[in-house]
Design brief:
Layout (H helix, E strand, L loop, with lengths): L2 H14 L4 H8 L3 H9 L9 H8 L3 H6 L9 H16 L2 H25 L7 H25 L4 H27 L10 E2 L4 H9 L2 H13 L2 H9 L6 H21 L5 E2 H22 L1
Parallel strand pairs: 1-2
Helix pairs in contact: 1-3, 2-3, 7-8, 8-9, 9-12, 11-14, 12-14, 13-14
């Protein structure tokens, strides 16, 4: 069984029928990249797709398996078993091992972050901890992107892989967020500010650049990823509903900080965080359009 012959056969039959890769993909409910892999020999159609593919190309399954016109197999079952074995061999190649490596590196890096976060005798800069979590998340995204490009055929499976990536990164982000705003390693006296923009003005007047970046821009940007997850993972598209959910989340966090004395209940934090999330919402929708 020659995989290059099969690839060329699929490609030639598609072109002979005047079909594009996109049209074949739409007929089979698979991704266009999957069809491209089949035609370049970088992958083979799943065994469950052979019959639908044969119908689209107006050929017999046995002709696809042999990569030739009018070529019949004496034993179709034996050919299918051999095809399935070859498909499995190609599936677990070096790219599959690379995906596993990315997952292992991601988990190990995140464990390093947790070690830094919860070890009382280790003090690591805020930006370093943030960087470690970002790299951990990137490993997951890259690993799943390789899997999507080289192994996923069906559109529904592509969506599942995307959602799976988001779910893992969301867990990383939530742990980071709670460590930053709730499980902080310091105690403070319960206090509050209900005067809008008072804290913001005080910070700009009395603080150095580092404090301004942490307090002002930190509040603006730290919840932007949460807005992305609300849109893409939880499918909340409506702006007004999004605004309400964002305000409610920030209000709950500020209340918890006040009750457990790990921060100040500050109306300015609610304003900045909510503004940052809604700003991301608008920019993201503009980019997607």
């Amino acid at each position: 069984m020659d995989l290059n012959k099969i690839a060329n056969f699929i490609k030639n039959k598609r072109k002979k029928l005047g079909l594009t890769q996109e049209e074949v993909a739409q007929n089979l409910f698979v991704t266009e990249k999957a069809v491209s892999r089949w035609e370049t020999g970088r992958g083979t159609p799943d065994i469950s797709l052979l019959v639908p593919l044969a119908k689209v190309l107006k050929v017999d399954v046995s002709e696809i398996l042999n990569g030739e016109d009018n070529k019949k197999n004496e034993n179709d079952i034996e050919s299918l078993i051999k095809y399935n074995e070859i498909t499995k061999e190609n599936k677990y190649n070096y790219k599959f091992k690379l995906i596993i490596l990315f997952y292992i590196l991601s988990i190990l890096l995140f464990l390093v972050y947790l070690r830094f976060e919860y070890a009382p005798n280790i003090e690591i800069n805020y930006f370093i901890r943030l960087f470690i979590v970002i790299i951990s998340s990137l490993f997951i995204v890259i690993g799943n992107k390789i899997y999507e490009n080289d192994y996923v055929e069906r559109i529904e499976d592509k969506n599942k892989v995307f959602k799976f990536s988001l779910s893992i990164v969301f867990i990383y982000y939530i742990i980071l967020l709670f460590n930053m705003v709730i499980f902080a390693r310091f105690n403070s006296v319960s206090s509050y500010n209900l005067v809008p923009f008072k804290s913001i003005i005080d910070i700009f007047k009395n603080s150095d650049m580092y404090s301004i970046v942490i307090n002002i821009f930190g509040n603006l940007f730290i919840f932007m990823p949460l807005e992305y997850f609300i849109i893409e993972l939880f499918k909340v598209k409506k702006f007004s509903l999004n605004l309400g959910i964002s305000c409610f989340i920030i209000l709950i966090i500020e209340t918890i900080q006040f009750i457990f004395r790990v921060g100040v209940f500050d109306i300015d934090d609610i304003i900045l965080c909510t503004f940052g999330m809604m700003l991301f919402n608008l920019i993201y929708k503009i980019i997607k359009k």
